[in-house]
Amino acid sequence: MKKTIIIFALLLIGTTVFSQKMITRNGKITFEASIPSFEEIKATNSTVSCILDEATGDFAALVLIKSFKFKAPLMEEHFNENYMESNLFPKATFKGKILNFDAKKLSTASTTYELEGDLTIHGITKKIKTKINLILTGGKLNTTANFDIKPQDYGIEIPSLVKDKIAKNIDTRINFNLETQ
Amino acid sequence: MKKLKRIIIAITILLLIGLSTYYYIMHAGARDLSAEESAYTVTAKDITIEFNTNIDDSNKKYLEKPIAITGIVTALTPTQITIDKTVICNLKNPQTNIEIDQLISLKGRVIGYDDLMEEVKIDQCIIIKKSL
User: Fold this and answer.
1) Is the full-model pTM beyond 0.90?
2) What Pfam families would the database entry show (chain B) (predicted)?
3) Nearest CA to CA, how far is B2 from chain A (Å)?
4) Which of A124, B30, B116, B122 is the most buried (most CB within 10 A)?
5) A101-157: pLDDT as tens digits
6) CATH number of the domain at B34-130, out of 3.40.190.10, 2.40.30.170, 2.40.50.140, 3.90.1570.10?
7) Which of A72, A87, A93 has its CB closest to that of B25?
8) Domain annotation for chain A: domains and CATH numbers
9) Three-class SS state of A62
10) Would you call A90 and B111 a contact, using CB atoms and an 8 Å cutoff?
11) Is the ipTM of this complex over 0.95?
């Protein structure tokens, strides 16, 4: 009987200590594929979900393609229907890890880590590695990263007619404010 | 003098055509959800269960469709209402006169299921009805 109580107590401590999760539902992703002197191609999504496990550095994010907002509605329509096929592939996800993450070392000064994992866009998964900057202020963890995405890596075809007007490397920026739940 | 007049008229016409084309490209094609009939009328609980049981089928059924959805407000920001904890509705116009625990009906476009948070997301929401 004592043993089970101890085990239960340990389990309880275990879950509280080891599963501190920081989350957001309003993360921001912006990408830009503009080419100088052509139309600006830029979209923002500010309803990105993200979960960071403070104990392990596990990092997961999910974004719904349809909630990317462009300046021009027609561009948004083309993005959804012709390029991302968002009816077939409604989401893009990332599942990975912040390498050597140590929650105790977080501070108001920016610390940089490597983020590695699987990025799934348009139904195709690719391994990516990028730098991620973390700043902890007032219980909020500001997480930013900046990396390039090549549409062809994810089977996104760009018609030759507009090929010169869309950048080959799409500049992608993430900005999440994670909070402990 | 006559020539100058003609040139001015031609330039004005060209300018007008150019401007309207630009306007069309930049602004046309926006969807007006309020003018569309709801494809389905559901409760927040039911649609969450549906997405939870089978994401692919539910995606086929609901994605991009305008739906009418009913539930209790469980969280609130000026631009976003959460109903029954599992349906996130992004509002078309910011609202201030809504309260937690209110029974509410909204119309919006289904944009997908967030299986990380286990939430259904709807945008361009307008309020159809709310309890007092």
Assistant:
1) no
2) tRNA_anti-like (PF12869)
3) 38
4) B122
5) 999 999 999 999 999 999 999 999 999 999 999 999 988 999 999 999 999 999 999
6) 2.40.50.140
7) A72
8) 21-180 (2.40.128.110)
9) strand
10) yes
11) no
